[in-house]
Design goal:
Elements: H1 8-11, E1 25-29, H2 35-46, E2 51-58, E3 64-71, H3 74-83
Antiparallel strand pairs: 1-3, 2-3
């Protein structure tokens, strides 16, 4: 029988936060067709901590819309950047 540990954050629906706290590790990606939903699903099934995904504006040059992704645990940010196959389509 398969025994899997229950994540309390999933039970409480508290994994995806509505705003990005300043202590989250963040990155930005270009928006594309359905990419935010696909990345949200990948993060939900492959990580265990709290995360943020939402729209943002890039202030470094001309104003462009970006997707902001943030993780509470810096190790999950590293894992996301290395293992998420969806990022290779976002160049």
């Amino acid at each position: 029988m398969l025994k899997k540990k229950i994540n309390p954050l999933n039970v409480l629906k508290a994994r995806r936060v509505e705003f990005c706290p300043p202590y989250f590790e963040t990155t930005y990606i270009d928006p594309g067709y359905n990419i935010a939903k696909a990345i949200d699903e990948w993060i939900f099934y492959n990580t265990s901590g709290r995360y943020f995904i939402g729209s943002s504006v890039d202030h470094t040059g001309p104003l462009k819309q970006k997707i902001k992704i943030g993780f509470e645990k810096s190790s999950e940010m590293s894992y996301f950047m290395l293992a998420c196959p969806l990022l290779k389509y976002n160049r």
